[in-house]
Amino acid sequence: MENGFFKNVEKKTGVNMKDIFDLANSLQHANFKDEQTVRGVIRKVSQIANKPVTKEMEDKLVSSIVKDGQQLDLNTISKMINKK
């Protein structure tokens, strides 16, 4: 049943669930106070979501997460990317 659920999600979103799980696993031990780490995560989410992120938007996201201490999760990044 789980496999069918994930296949339906993939079909509806166009996002490969393996990519999502790989990203989630990489986030578990990431240092979100490190600018380069945060930039890498933003780029990976952008790639998975097929939503290009401008340099200006990337800088804004990095500032919000690293400097302002905003909590980082996939939902937060997704919302910020979709606001552009």
From TrEMBL:
InterPro entries: SpoVIF. It comes from the Bacteria. This is Sporulation protein.
